[in-house]
Amino acid sequence: MNLSPAYLQWRDETLQEGVKQGVKQGVKQAQRVFVKSLLISRFGKIDKVLSQVIEPLVQLPLEKSARLLPRLSREELLAKFGKKS
After folding, report:
1. Which domain holds residue 34?
2. Nearest-10 crossing angle of helices 62-71, 5-43
3. pLDDT for the residue 84
4. pTM for the whole thing?
5. Cα 19 from chain centroid (whole Å)
6. Which of 51, 53, 54, 84: CA 20 to 30 A from 40?
7. Rg of the chain on CA atoms, in Å
8. What secondary structure letter does DSSP report for 50?
9. Measured distance CA(43)–CA(37) in Å, rounded
């Protein structure tokens, strides 16, 4: 069975894109675990209010969240990254 070059190219590009998306999701998941772990080590637990800052921190570059998390107090984290009421 001969496959067309256009199909082969499409298949290769699609597979490469899938791999890129998988790696990107894996990195974000690892960053989410990092953020949660650091919050737990600093504040003992993640309550409903503090959980609001997780996703905004995960969206930051890892270097920036790694610098901010040890430095900012709970109140500062909530003011900067918590949901606005």
Report:
1. 5-81
2. 10
3. 62
4. 0.74
5. 17
6. 84
7. 19
8. G
9. 10
Is the predicted pLDDT of residue 80 greater than 60, yes or no? yes
Print burial letters for 11-28: b (CB count within 10 Å at least 16), e (below 16).
eeeeeeeeeeeeeeeeee
pLDDT at 2 over 90: no
Report pLDDT digits (tens) over 14-31: 888 888 888 788 888 999
Residue 4 carries which side chain, given as an amino acid letter? Answer: S
Using the Cα atoms of residue 9, residue 15, residue 18 and residue 23 in order, give the sign of their dihedral: negative
Tell me the two tokens of residue 9: 């190219």
| Token pair in block for residue 60 | 């930051």
How many structural domains are present in the chain?
Answer: 1
